[in-house]
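Researcher: Before we compare anything, I want clean individual predictions. No alignment, no superposition, just each chain on its own. First chain goes here; please echo the sequence and then give the structure tokens.
Model: Echoing the first chain and its structure:
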Amino acid sequence: MNTTKIGWIGLGNMGIPMAEQLITADYTVTVYNRSKDKETALKEMGALIAETPKELIATTDVVIIMVSDDAAIEQIFNGQEGLFSAEISGKIMINMSTVSPAISKEMDTLCKEKGAQYLDAPVSGSVKQAETGQLVIMVGGDETAYEQVKPILEKLGKMAVRLGDTGAGNLAKLAINSLLALYTQGLAETVVFANQQGIKTEDLLNLLNNGAIANIFTKIKGDAIIADNYKPAFALKHIVKDLTLAKAIGLDSPLAKTALNTFEAATAKYGEEDLIAVIKQVKG
């Protein structure tokens, strides 16, 4: 059994399969989640359960966080029973959430003041890649801390790369998700245009998936469109959050502006659905 004790905070669509990867790899994993029902399956696999982040960090060496936004990070660290309410000297915090570089720099500074290390390490990939340990992980922060936890990251992804100092991982992830938004809207518009010209969705996607621009994303989201299945692997509301974060640090291109406007307009009706549900907004 691996001797490093891991704490895991955040059991959403990505957090559950990622934590499962570590349990399968024989790490001792303690989990905390606000919605306690999501802890059940992991408990049955052998995970320990903590009632608060403070309780979780007391018995772990490395804490991994996978939550939705900056506000959740603020609460996890600075809440009444948050990580900073405990003794954290010598611990390593790995924030794998897609959040702003600013919140990472703030938490990094506070961690260092308390004798701990902080890494931002968001991931590229969706639920399928999380389930199979094939995520791509982009890391910002101290190189020594990164090398210490690299074996853990390599259980979660097929690639882990340190890009620079604190916030570098967040910056890379926002760039990647900006492209994801552009591509998603482009795929949606292409399907709608083809349909308007009498081309069936199935026929169009068969051509795309066998052509020069074929890729896994088109296959997965194309299948979702054909099946009219918008169960969220990545909720549309989250791409709005990511584009807004990217805009805040300078993304101001014509395509990015258009994508943000489109996804924002879709949020009221389709925010809880998968991001490819933007096709329903495009159809009007």
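Researcher: Okay. Second chain, same rules.
Model: Second chain and its structure:
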Amino acid sequence: MSQPKDPIEPQTNSESSSENALPFVAPCINLSLGAPWRWLKRGFRDTQRAPLMSLGFGTVMAAILGVLVLAAWQVGSAWAVFSALLGTVFVLPLICIGTYAISAQLERDLPVSFRRTLRASFKRYIGTGLVFALVLLIVFLVWARASSMISIFLPSSSDYSSADMAVYLGTFLTVGMFFLSIIFAASVFSLPMIMHRDVDAITAIVTSINAVMRNKGVMLVWGVLILFGISLCLVTGGVLLVIFLPAVGHAVWHGYMETIDASAFPRHKMGITSIPRSS
């Protein structure tokens, strides 16, 4: 029985389409409300199958999140919270590429390799990932400008009523949720697609937004589930983040594979995803 080729070696791309024939966006399916729970279950299963690598990435992600939250708590200002959120949204999705690489290896019945995972995380797709980060930076700059303008709703004197503060906080939260929704829609499936297929960052972002818009209720459940899980982990001391965060990373990969049909786009010529899945 022939052995699968090492995915680090170049592969013949028999599935490639010509560049001009590539679609603008990859199609997606309509999901059921139970899909997020199914993704999370598969995410915890991958964490159990590759515990050392998964918990290693989980430790790094939990440490970053813990430092940012602690710094924001000590400063105790809205801008500190905003900055912490900025750092979290920028750094954690990029680190999650490591968990995608782990799940991709498990799907192909490959031994989970530390070297292969790091190459996938920091070498193979770093260029496209940086373009993705640049797009997020532009969104955040607009968000920062909008947040600074909200200060006009802040009571100017110490003698303010609860209604005055409610207007300020309500406006701040509304604007924040609006931009968070944009970032969530743009990022939830884009980085997995960049790792899975040879696509540019804009195509991946548009595909992610399209999938979210076609499955608004399901993705709302997924976002709330992640937020609830992180909040519960923080309330219980943050230790469980080491397990929960990599499980979410694995779950996002499975969510992407279930939702997006990227078969029209060429495979990478090298790396883990250059060969088909065995499961």
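Researcher: What stands out in the second chain?
Model: DSSP finds eleven helices and no strands in the chain. Additionally, The radius of gyration is 20 Å.
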